[in-house]
Design brief:
With 374 residues, the protein is α/β, with parallel strands linked by helices. Helix content is 43%, strand content 15%. The protein has 16 helices and twelve strands. Helix 7 links the parallel strand 5 and strand 6.
Length: 374
Amino acid sequence: MAKAEGRPRVDFLSGDRSRPMDAMERVYSELRRHVGGLIDGRELGYSYPVALRKIPTATYVSQGLYAINAWMKRRQDSIIHINNQRLGIVLHLNDFSPSIIFCHDIIEHVMSEYWGGPAYRMFIRSYLTGTLKADVVLTPSKWTAGEIRKHFPAASTRLEPIHDAVDHKLFRPLDRRLFLKRFGLPEDRKYLLYVGSEQPRKNFPAVVRAFIGARKEFPGLTLLKIGRADEIEGYPVHKQIQEELAAAGLSSQALFFENMPDEMMPAAYSAADAFLFPSLYEGFGLPVLEAMACGTPVVASNTTAIPEVAGDGAILVPPTDPNAILEATLRVLRDDELRADLSARGRRRAELFSWDKSAMQLLEIYRQLDPRHD
C-alpha cells in the first residue's frame, strides 16, 4: 500500500471525450497509456451533444462549466494535467496548482487564417493566457518551446519539451501489397502519399502540384491522400485542388481516403514510393516520424519543427518553393539507391523517438511537482 501511495497523484483534464481522436488526442492517449501504471491517475473528462459543437458560444460555456466541475472534483494534493492548450481556459478561470498543460503549437496565435470572428479570437486569448499560467508547459519539440518564448517573452512558466513518438511495434516496414490488395490498386505503379488535413498551413496544394509535375516523367504515378479535409472557413482548399486535378486530367489518379483504420496506416506508408509533407507550420509533424519508422522515403519541409524530427532521415526542402519540392520528389522516384538510403536513414532516425522514453520524462516532471514530496 505504501508503494501505491508514493506514486504521483494526477488528475487528467482530458476534455470532450465524445470528439473524434485527432493528433493531440493520440499523443495524450499514448503518453497516458505508457505512464499509467507508474502514477495514481484519474480522468476528468466531459462530453456534450454533438449538435452544440457547431455553436461556438456553446463550446466556450461548456468549457467554463468544465473548469468549475474540475475544481469541485479534483483530489487533494493532485497534479492537474491538461491534455492540450485549447483547454487552457480552465487555467484562465481557475488557479490550479500544481498544473501541467500540453501546448502542441501556437498556430492560432501566429497564423491569421485561424483567427475567425471576434468571439473565437477572445477564446484564443483566454486559452493562451490560461496555458501560460501552468506551472509546467509541455511542448512536443524544442522548436515549439522556442516559439512560446519568442511570442510570450514575459511568461515565467517552465517549458519542458517532450517529443512525440511512434509505436514501433505498429509502425514498421510491411509488404506494400497488403495495402494495394486491400484497395484493389495495381502493384506495378509508383505511389506518392500525403497524410493530413487540407488546412492552409498543411500546404497540400504543393503536394498536388508536385504530383502533376512528376506525372510527366512517370505516367502511371498515383497520389494517395489520407485524412479529412478539415478545412477552415474561407479557405476552400479542397475545391481548389479538385479543379487543378481536373484541369490536368488526373482526378481519377488521385485517391482520397478520409478515414483509415490505425492498423492499416503502416501498410499505407509502406505502399508509397515517397511520402510528401511540405507543411508550412508544425509543432512536431507526427506523420513524418511514422513514415520514417515504416521505411518510406520522406520529402518534407525544412522549416518549423520538422527538421528537429526528421534530422538526416529525410530530404528537406523549402515548402514555398514548388520547383524544389518537385525536384526532390523526382530524385526519389528515379533513384532506387537513394530510396534505399533514405529508408535506412529514416528508420534509424525514428528509433530515437519512443513513447517509453517520453513517458519517463513526463514521470520525472510529475515527481518534481508532486506536492506530497519535497
